[in-house]
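Changelog entry: the ABZJ_00895 family protein record was regenerated in this release. Current contents:
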Amino acid sequence: MNFKRYILVLVATMLGLGVLLTGLSMAGIYIEARSIALIPVIIAAFVEGQCYAQKHERLPTKGDAWRFGLQAGMVVMVLQCLAGAAFYWLVPESFTGLTLAQFAAYVLAALGAIFVLTAVASRFIFRNIAKSTLKAQAKRAARQAKT
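Regenerated structure tokens:
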């Protein structure tokens, strides 16, 4: 996994969706951010799956796909921790009324869910997009061989 490319695609997609949601809300159309939370993960895994197939010219093994999914889950979890820390620093009053134990329980539950969803979705998309890319390359090569 190319961490730089993955993080760049992930963050760019997150920022782009944030701008899009803001623009839509200004136009009177409201979409909850949690309903599209996995889109950046999906797009980043899509890009990595294509790049893997083009570079290695083979389908990633199941082990490669799980390794990618677990690494992607860790990257997303770290980015979410950073975003949560920034939110806490910018808007600390939104956390008043929570005890430290409650806060820790919410954070751990959220991070666990983020990790599991990201790892499974990334693994599935990474491998399937690599497979689709290889099929498309084979079809393209067959068409070029006919001409």
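The chain has one domain: 3-146.
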